[in-house]
Specification:
The structure holds 2 protein chains of 2 kinds. Chain A has 8 helices and 20 strands. The two termini of chain A are 32 Å apart. The relative contact order of chain A is 0.11. Chain B starts with a helix and ends in a 14-residue tail after the last helix. In chain B, helix 4 crosses helix 12 and helix 5 packs parallel to helix 8. Chain B is 70% helix and 0% strand. Classes of the chains: A alpha+beta, B mainly alpha. Chains A and B meet through strand 6, helix 2 and helix 4 of A and helix 9 and helix 10 of B.
Chain lengths: 360, 317
């Protein structure tokens, strides 16, 4: 049975339609990440699951019970806010104990649960301090501690790491994944950072303008994006897109005319795309520097070259005006402003039809 | 250009601990010379001007107090001597002792003033805290109009409304009671206090309410355990403002709505020093200063709760 299921869930604020009918099933113990650009409705969706926003239409079910009209505390969820939302006038201990105080649990039970949470989060030595004296990472841990003591069915995280600096963020990311492993509870995590999504998720839900663009495991989204949006959103640096026209599609091979770059023949069964304006996509990391037999080759002039030691990134502009990024291993010599040949294998190429949907 | 760069560097060096040691080292000699960031440094004549300005301003504000205090030290005969002496000759604190005999009810007047202001303050706080919370947090029909209405009420001073208020008080049978001074006093102070506290409460992050709500706390529990402790500095400001306001405005209400001397507050009670032949100025001044004392004590007491930066660490700004 699904731990959480959303059925045609919608949300509108007055005229504005924020969430446009979302169906989703989350099973017990899953780590699900909602990812999307800002304004796609991912935080609103999380707040609806939490019970902070009303549901305009559709149903939210947690553990087989419809919770649309239940307050957060009866839904069996706990939430960690982006801004931590700690009570500055209370000690770390009282912050973590807050939900238990509301429940009026006996002091011995409160002590037991707070100590257990503090141990998990390595906050034992900080319990008598105020949040104001803690670092960002420690504050975040206190916020997580407050969620843990409730022993919820589902943890909700609203961009919990976005206020931390880069080094601390990757550290906390690992801590959160360890926490998930240890507690084994269902977690729903909202972020706009696709790296966070890729590294942490069992299942990623890509949201775009209030609808689900694609649901899948990180590698599914990486290797088989359903559409242009997901292809462009997942992966860093972004996938390169080249516009073209399908000159022929006979059911086995589609020939795409890329203008000045020549034509490329891709193995595709669809006949419907014949004559359409399409986009082909290739990931920067799938490009090779030399001319290779049986691969498609194009020549570009990089404007900017970034040498990172482990990688070399080139930025160039194609004749059609598209930006073209290349990512190469190590530090090959690629001088700026000099023409170079770049090739890629045909089976690494993604093809998107007129409507932006992937054609396989 | 380089000046600007150096200024920002220096500011960064003293205000943030995370500045690199290199930047610190470069700003250190400058920092040691004056100990303050460039933007806060002044030439000698700028400092002279600043202090001259302060002196003028302070003189205007404090001169009446100084003169009042000096008068309270002089014997009555010296007050009408020509040429006038500002500095008391053989001054004494006699007036501070004789005034209790000249006006036997003085202690009661001081108590009345203090009592009326205290009750007004308690009423205002009790009404304003929930009202300000509601205006800061809830969206409801007419909240904008109500807030505008409160401002409009503040534009009328109590004096304009004295006659209608008098009729109202008479109908309700409140004339010549403590309530005659307490009720209008509180009514006129509530609107501005709601505005003040509402603004303060709006600065308390909404996420704190939401977090408490998610954790199962009711609205009232959140108000009591989360919002009130954080709004304490704002509430103290409202309490001080109300207490002072009530102390200052009771004169006009007491004069109009009360004629019983046992309920008179100090400002009216001071008229007792106006004798048939002469005004006992020195005792009048002494009584005024003693009358201010309770207010001073209350403010000093409340000030301890004006802790700045209480919300630090609530959310990441």
């Amino acid at each position: 049975m699904a731990e959480l299921s959303l059925k045609r869930v919608e949300k509108s604020f007055n005229e504005a339609h924020i969430i446009k009918g979302i169906d989703l099933e989350v099973s017990e113990g899953e780590f699900v990440v909602f990812v999307g650009p800002s304004g796609c409705g991912k935080s609103t969706l999380l707040r609806m699951i939490a019970g902070l926003e009303e549901v305009s239409a559709g149903e939210i079910e947690i553990g087989g019970r419809i919770v649309n009209d239940l307050p957060p505390v009866q839904r069996g969820i706990a939430m960690v806010f982006q801004s931590y939302a700690l009570y500055p006038h209370m000690t770390v201990y009282e912050n973590i104990a807050f939900p238990l105080r509301v429940e009026r649990l006996p002091q011995a039970e409160v002590d037991k649960r707070v100590d257990a949470a503090a141990k998990v989060l390595q906050l034992e030595s900080r319990l008598q301090q105020r949040p104001g004296t803690l670092s960002g990472g420690q504050r975040q841990r206190v916020a997580i501690g407050r969620a843990i003591v409730r022993q919820p069915r589902i943890f909700l995280f609203d961009e919990p790491l976005s206020n931390l600096d880069a080094a601390l963020r990757s550290e906390m990311r690992i801590e959160l994944m360890e926490l998930h492993k240890r507690l084994g509870s269902t977690m729903i995590y909202v972020t706009h950072d696709q790296v966070e999504a890729m590294t942490m998720a069992d299942k990623i839900v890509v949201l775009d303008a209030g609808t689900i663009s694609q649901i899948g495991s990180p590698l599914q989204l990486y290797h088989k994006p359903d559409n242009l949006f997901v292809a462009g959103f997942i992966g860093s640096p972004k996938m390169d897109f080249i516009n073209g026209t399908v000159s022929s599609a006979d059911g086995t091979t589609a020939v795409v005319d890329l203008g000045e770059l020549g034509t490329i023949s891709l193995p595709r069964q669809s006949k419907a795309i014949a004559g359409q304006t399409v986009t082909i996509g290739i990931r920067p990391e799938h490009l090779n520097l030399d001319r290779r037999e049986g691969e498609f080759t194009l020549s570009v002039t990089p404007n900017i070259v970034e040498q990172l030691g482990i990688h070399t990134v080139t930025y160039s502009t194609l004749p059609g005006g598209e930006n073209f990024i290349g990512l190469f291993e190590g530090d090959p010599s690629v001088p700026e402003g000099q023409k170079l040949d770049i090739s890629f294998a045909l089976d690494q190429v993604h093809l998107f039809d007129q409507a932006g949907l992937a054609v396989y | 250009m380089s000046d600007v760069a150096r200024t920002t560097e220096a500011a960064a060096g003293t205000s943030s601990l995370s500045a690199t040691t290199q930047a610190m080292a470069r700003t250190a000699p400058r920092g040691r010379r004056s100990g303050r960031p460039m933007i806060d440094r002044y030439k000698w004549y700028e400092i002279v001007l600043l202090y001259a300005g302060m002196a003028v301003f302070l003189f205007f504000v404090l001169a009446p107090f100084i003169e009042g205090f000096l008068v309270s030290l002089k014997p009555l005969s010296q007050l009408f001597s020509t040429p006038y002496n500002f500095i008391p000759q053989n001054g004494s604190f006699d007036a501070y002792f004789t005034m209790w005999q000249s006006v036997p009810m003085l202690a009661l007047y001081i108590f009345n003033s203090f009592f009326i202001s205290t009750v007004v303050t308690l009423i205002v706080i009790a009404v304003v805290v929930p009202a300000a919370y509601a205006f800061a947090r809830f969206q409801f029909g007419g909240s904008g109009i109500l807030l505008g209405g409160f401002l409009a009420v503040n534009m009328f001073s109590g004096a304009v409304l004295l006659i209608p208020l008098f009729r109202l008080m008479r109908t309700m049978g409140l004339l010549n009671t403590y309530w005659a001074m307490i009720v209008p006093g509180a009514a006129f102070l509530i609107p501005s206090s709601i505005w003040l506290l509402r603004t303060y409460m709006m600065r308390i992050p909404r996420e704190l309410d939401e977090a408490a709500w998610v954790d199962g706390a009711s609205r009232l529990y959140t108000l009591r355990r989360v919002v009130l402790p954080l709004a304490m500095p704002g509430i103290v400001v409202v309490a001080i403002m109300t207490f002072i306001g009530a102390y200052a405005q009771q004169f006009i209400f007491a004069l109009t709505f009360n004629s019983r001397s046992e309920f008179m507050p100090l400002p009216i009670g001071l008229f007792a020093f106006f004798g048939k032949q002469e005004v006992i100025w020195n005792e009048l001044m002494a009584a005024s200063f003693i009358g201010i004392l309770p207010v001073m004590i209350v403010i000093v007491f409340l000030q301890r709760y004006l802790v700045a930066g209480l919300t630090a660490g609530a959310v990441k700004q």
